[in-house]
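Hey,

Quick one before I head out. I ran the complex with 4AD overnight. Inputs first:
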Amino acid sequence: MMKREKIKQILDKNSPMDSVLVKGWVRTKRESKEFTFLEINDGSCLKNIQVVSDHTLENYDDIIKITTGSAVSITGKLVVSPGKGQSLEIQAENVDIVFINPENYPLQKKRHTDEFLRTIAHLRPRTNKYGAVFRIRSELSYAIHQFFKNMGFFYIHTPIITGSDCEGAGELFRVTTLKNISDEKTDFYKDFFGKEASLTVSGQLSAEMYALSLGDVYTFGPTFRAENSNTSRHAAEFWMIEPEMAFCDIEENMGVAEKFIQYIIQYTIDNCKPDLDMFCKFVDKELMTTLDSVISRDFKRLTYKEAIDILIKSGEKFDYGVSFGNDLQSEHERYLTDIYYKGPVIVYNYPKTIKPFYMRLNDDNKTVAAMDILVPRIGELIGGSQREERLDVLKSRMQESGLNLSDYWWYLESRTYGSVPHSGFGLGFERLIMFITGITNIRDVISFPRTPGNIDF
Ligand code: 4AD
Ligand code: MG
């Protein structure tokens, strides 16, 4: 039995072979008098391989009837191509037709709108663009693990089903086995876990317990938010990378986050060139300039107060008013990154009133040691902080936030025993992919997006 070669391997080796076996799907077919040319893609890379079938092949009558998207298995000689546009091609000796696609295959045209492709999310990875998105997504996952492994972090799997609301924003999806629930009077002690449960919005609280044990840890998993904001940057199910570091303050935290983003971008440039080039050419002509702005210099760091001053002085007409104490809206973030600094910025020391309970209170009693990393086009890519390690301060912040302390007894106990300064952050994986590919809608970088009113696949 001959070993099947992936098209990527063949093109990487770039040398003729006496016999090869490739399997894939037909992207296009062209006929001349004596030959039929098939462009085959097997998903391993952006490029197709050209297969030339001579009219003397025994099933030539079937070969000329091959339709777009049909599946084939080809054996033949890999030779230097005399034609333009490819260095190698296969002279077919045998064309085995695995599947003939019907004529109504939706991906006949070369280009479709992203909106249309969203309606066929099960087929869109068969296009050049979406194939590239999901290959890059896979490569980035490896790069992320590699970065943390190199830094001596441990990968922790934190629960998907939880009994606490990490961000305190009330955006929880409930998990229950009860048939009837009403918001006020349900007896959750009868429920599966004996209390209210939900899907996690962040693995942070659990990760903190492990940082206070193993030192440096990270999580990389799905998170869920019932946020009703139907925007191009929010999904109800998204993936987050959350490092958590013991004996680490906000300054060091910013340093790790900056190095992390730069590493991932450099990795993509070094390892995903063909796919990245496609995005530079067809999706965002400014993409390389934007990516360069991230790897070529240190991120600008400024306090929330300084950011507010810049926004007020800008004279821009924003839809949302700017004043100390209000959260930055994406238009404000974009002004700082796209217009004012033309690159990524780290905004730190936010008012405590707009940030969650676990962030460390600064000496001014007004701000917390929070830090958000904002990048061009996307806005917030990372949210993080130094954590409140002082038991009494943490308790009073939780009370202020209206939390039920007894629900968090285990979290509080980590401040009773062996508590140390520690910090961490969360990076939204889809936003990172949007940033790196130039794609502007989060629905187009996750395989089957979940957004309000939409769970078709
Ligand atoms: O700023 P957030 O809410 O921070 C946390 O969850 C912290 N517990 C993280 C930590 O310190 N360990 O979310 C972190 C990041 C955001 O900066 C954003 O990139 C992404 O997660 N994110 C979303 N991405 C897609 N859809 C949503 N609905 C998102 N909400 C947050
Ligand atoms: Mg945030």
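The pocket of magnesium ion (ligand 2) is lined by residues 372, 380, 383 (CB under 6 Å).

Talk tomorrow,
K.
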